[in-house]
Amino acid sequence: MSDNNRENSNHANNHYLYYPDEKDVPTYLAYGFRPIFLLLPPYIVISMILWALVWSGYLNIPFMNDTLTWHVYEMLFGILTAGVLAFLTTGLPELFPGMVPFIGKRLKYIMILWIAGRVSFWFIDITGVYLTAILNLAMLGWLIWFAKDVVLDKLQRHSSLGYILVVIFGLEVWFFASVSGHAVLHLWIF
Questions:
Q1: Hey, where are the domains in the chain?
Q2: Which residues lie closer than 8 Å to 35 by C-beta, 6 or more apart?
Q3: Lowest model confidence (mean pLDDT) among 11-25, 71-85, 116-130
Q4: Whose CA is closest to 44, among 118, 152, 94?
Q5: CA 27 to centroid of chain Cα atoms
Q6: pTM (2 decimals)?
């Protein structure tokens, strides 16, 4: 095996050297993508079915007064954020040897925050805009903090990932500012 191939195959397994010492980690919390892959597909299906029923007039859910905004927000911020969470918590420890994978209890807590963000947005009329914003922005803020090594990398190999997260965070702040009446948001559908 050439030195280059040995280095590349070794690089793919380097994160195991820094795997946390946490004991009795459930299989579904052993990697960042696992809880997302378990929760996201049913969530997407349930969201799409409910949205279609409300949109078509077969179902009336009081908290979904603005079905188009709800749908756009959940598909863009709720589902996109979960996908990015799965990708980054699994991939960054492999791209940046020495970075400790995010597993176990810490992963469970961030998943609880993601679920709380989803529930709070579904019931935004009850939870209020500010609590919903705090829960959803905290999740994305944590993800930006987790990905800081990408932006701070001397070679800037994957820094665009970090910058895109900051842009998404800004868009989500703007969304909540507009919902609370502090900014103007125009949604055009062609």
A1: 3-179
A2: 28, 29, 107, 108, 111
A3: 11-25
A4: 118
A5: 20
A6: 0.80
Compute the distance between CA of residue 34 and CA of residue 26 in angstroms, rounded to an integer: 10
pLDDT tens-digit map of 21-36: 777 888 888 888 999 9
Residue 49, helix vs strand vs coil = helix
- Summarised one tens digit per residue, pLDDT across range 147-170 is 887 777 777 777 888 888 999 999
Separation CA 96–CA 94 (nearest Å): 6
Query: Can you list the pairs that 38-43 forms with residues at least 24 positions away whose Cβ atoms lie under 8 Å?
Result: 39/82, 39/111, 39/115, 40/79, 40/82, 40/83, 40/86, 43/78, 43/79, 43/118
Q: What is the dihedral of CA 90, 110, 36, 132, to 10 degrees?
A: -140
